[in-house]
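hi! just following up on the protien thing from before. the input was this:
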Amino acid sequence: MELLYSRRDGNTWTAVAHIITGVIGSGVLTLAWSMAQLGWGAGPLVMLLFASVAFGSAMCLCNCYRSPDPETGPARNPSYIGAVRMILGKKNAALCGVVLRLNFFKLGVIYTLTSAISMRAIQRSNCFHKEGHQAACEYAKTSSYMLLFGIIQVATSQIPNFHGTEWLSIVSAIMSFSYATIGSALGLAKVIGDGRIKGSIGGAPTSTTIQKLWLVSQALGDIAFAFPFSGILLNVQDTLKSPPPERVTMRKVSAISIGIITFFYLCCGGFGYAAFGSSAPGNLLTGFGFYEPYWLIDLANACIILHLVGGYQVFSQPLFADLEGWMAEKFPNSEFINTDYKIKPPLLPLPAFRLNLLRLCFRTAYVGVTTATALAFPYFNQVVGVGGALSFWPLIVYFPTEMYIVQSGLGAWTRKWVFLRVYTGTCLLVAMFAVVGSVQGLIKAKFGQGTASSI
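and the predicted 3d structure came back as:
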């Protein structure tokens, strides 16, 4: 069973496509709501701060692909967990493995939720266009759309490895640019049509200070979810050809990707907040602040769905490769695990594809579990906030910083060492604040009156 790449011929732009596909996802749709909680003062600043943290994390991880020298080292670390194991040891790798796999699983759940919201939004948009904005439109349950997305993912999950998703990433990246641009343009058009910029320096008013704190913490979780791509950075770096050294190319890729991502995020969040102010919807393109032109809303949501088909695979393939690789090493003589069968579709002009029984069973079961979890917790904003808050500190701050300290040989209590410790400690406090507020929001949505983000 082929688990690693047989060739490394990727370039700057294929790598950027992978990153864009992985990052500009469902998180961008929450940014107008997040801006509404933070206001014009803190909102853009917080986005820029999270972008700088993501960039710093990427710069640290670029050095971890080869060991011991980051450019000429003979040992490759084609995965996040492999790099942690090589540099920080087995205990840290075990902890990292748990957090990283939960992160990939969480993304599968959120992408399933988001696709269902967008599928339903297309149906509702057409109904509102025909019957009026106040019409009591009947539409299929979102559970049906989640199941449909799950069926699609069962098929696409049979792509053998991360390298095989290159074409899917390029298509998905184009889709992400498309709906991010449409969302920004609709917000700008509404601002121009209304003749004023809504919102305030302090953000949406609340009845109590504690309520404001909960909303701010959830907004931080949403923004934290929107930026990071550390979990797949080394997988992407492993697709690059050399020379130049992979680290050099990946630094360029990271700078380009984060620059593009930050621009679109500021546009989507800023124009959405300027258009709706404190009433900004939790999901910019499905919350129906925009009704017309309905065909453009439909196009944007179709782009979201197509993008998420690829985004799901970009984050799932590293998990598949990790666990299937472990199985292949554990049972090297098993035909069920290690044998690929070539199947040629009858009467169709399609090339033969490789079917592996382990791949078929394991990946189908994985898609089934992510779909079932999404069905159990259909609360978009709250799930996004919890997911972003939980994975932000360990994957984006702690492990990359620790690997940088070890690889650089920084001595204890040197100026840079102290700075990095203060940095990780500060980020930990922010992450804990975001976790508490996001969990509170999820519990309130599940058992209380917080139904605004439920689908």
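Residues 1-6, 449-455 have pLDDT under 50 and may be disordered.
The beta strands are 66-67, 75-76, 340-343, 353-356.
cheers
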